[in-house]
Write a structure and sequence with these properties.
The structure is a single chain. The chain is built from 7 helices and 4 strands. The chain has about 130 residues and is of the alpha/beta class. The protein has one domain: 5'-nuclease (Rossmann fold, 3-Layer(aba) Sandwich), CATH 3.40.50.
């Protein structure tokens, strides 16, 4: 695996947005995963949709193509360290995004996310930049 895909790209992919489809197809081909947090956010969207069965079926194709990385004890320790450091610096990040970042760091993966602003504050986090 090379990339961890953030929820924002996955949601756009599932909505059929061409730019997200092209990006995720390329990243999945190269080797990509999602965090357990993103998995939960996908299912939040499924259960909140007008057609949960149809939404789940459509999401299943994507979920079958990626690994889902767990929140294990080392990842949670990394999360706590990051959260503490950012809080002390007066630059907190939402817990869900911080858990995704901790997962990327723990597995040495580049994070593919649209909202790079707050992720750039995390020391050592590799960010995938689409226009390389």
């Amino acid at each position: 695996m090379i990339y961890l895909i953030d929820s924002d790209w996955v949601i756009d992919y599932l909505k059929g947005i061409p730019r997200a489809i092209a990006l995720l197809r390329a990243l999945v081909y190269e080797g990509a995963a999602i965090s357990l947090i993103t998995y939960g956010e996908i299912y939040e969207g499924i259960y909140g949709s007008l057609d949960p069965g149809g939404s789940e079926e459509g999401s299943r194709n994507f979920l079958d193509e990626v690994s889902v990385l767990p929140l294990d004890q080392p990842t949670m320790r990394r999360f706590a360290l990051l959260r503490n450091g950012l809080r002390r610096a007066g630059q907190p990040i939402g817990d869900m995004d911080l858990l995704i970042a901790a997962t990327a760091l723990q597995h040495d993966l580049a994070l593919a996310a649209r909202n790079l602003g707050h992720f750039q504050r995390i020391s050592g986090l590799q960010l995938y930049e689409q226009n390389k």
